Batch of 3 targets.
Target 1
Amino acid sequence: MPPSPVPDPRPLTGEPLALDLLNTRWIDAEGSHDLLDRPDGLALWLSTPAVREHLGSAQVPADRAALDHLLRVRGALDVLVATPGQPDPAALAALNEVLAYGRIRRSLDTDGRPGSAVEVEDASWSPAWHAAESWLRLMDDRPDRVRPCANDECVLHFYDVSKNGTRRWCSMAGCGNRAKAQRHYARHRTA
């Protein structure tokens, strides 16, 4: 799928695939948004660099089946990020069910170099499977670095790759700047 000519409207992109899927919902000055509630939203998400990096040249239909599979994973991830360290059995079961529809096949190429390929039962499972597998990698690597934005009104999540692990905001230009402006206003208002 070629890149979409429509720009991605989300305020935070470029996160690992599982978090990128979570971040298909966001809140801004105009209200709440869900990229996956529009027919063209799924096609747009499938064309983003984060998704294309995982799917490669695989052709994935932007159809109801693919959307339903993704929404199932997003719902499970919503529960898991809300309860870190206390995994919800239903959310775990939902992710495990999606993961059962695919596998990583390891092999050697003709030159003897190792390789791997993702195989899914049906192309409509591919985006959901990759998002669930991305969550596994995050939980295996540094689960403490998966964080919600510190802005209570923000619903975005990020993977903190800062050296000292102290990132607080989905974006310093957005939520971080608003927090600084609010602190500044509160200091000067009391003075």
Target 2
Amino acid sequence: MTSAGISHEAAVAPAVPDPSAAVLYVCADRGMVMPGLAVERAEEEGRTFARERHLAITEVVTDEYGEPDPCRREGWQRVRMLAATGAVAVVLVRWPASIAPEGAHEYRHRETRWLQEHGALVRYTWAPLAARGGETR
């Protein structure tokens, strides 16, 4: 027991995540003509990106596009929880606007910083960004 009355097991910090453990986050606009197409493409690109880099997608988390502040999205809250508990080391997203639109880029910067502070790296899976390594800058 610690002086605060917490058992040593409960006082230990979360485990360091497996460096290959990734969550695939999909936040895509549902088009009128083909509502599932953007989600399908984002998932397909994410899985290909992960496979080529030997990452293990442990969970796919989705949100509907529209809310600029990611912290107000249920799916993004799940991504944060996975990072905070050390369950993932990598957060895969299709492109920066999946986290927050360009007009609200401060939210994106806040979230990528928060994830990095909690041991998770954001990687972009869209081919032109992935070709440059897919890492946040």
Target 3
Amino acid sequence: MDMDEFAPEFIRKSWPDLDMTSLCGPGPGWIDRAGDLVVVDGEVNWSTPECAGSGIDSYDMAPGTYPVYAGSVDLGDGEGPGQARYYVNTLFVAFATPETISESTWYFDESAALRIDEYACLWSRRAEQNTPFETLTRLRESMLSTKTLSRRGPWPNEVTDPGSGANVMVFPVADNSVSTMKALNNDGELLALLYLTWSP
């Protein structure tokens, strides 16, 4: 099965199967391909830089290019009644084929309940180390603009290390916490990550 077909169906099916409603509320209204994450040195995380002091959980991945899917919700109202405001509450990052992921076992990473605020960056260590403060400020302002929030993507996706192609993908978030579920095979190999936002 093609990943673009598999991922949205898998996320929607997993929401009740993994009992995610109790933590996160209703599932995303839309699930879209957000782009590809280029990893050159492992250590992938989804975090808000200003909240790094509260902790960041990184996951080691082999170098490669991996598809990313964003689930979003419309929390309205923008600058006027009825105007949409889209926020991302789910990120799915696939490191294996649909057939392999469908046979995996999902585990809730209890250590990965971390603080986020307004926006969150998906990146590898190389991309993070090569993103200057000025770029982060620009991406944050763009991410939280009325124009960006009023549409369901595309979200900022920028190469920060031209030599390797490592990039950062930035998403708006309305919740203030993020938890992670990870798909593992029988050998403990990481096959996919499912990031879920929520508020206490």
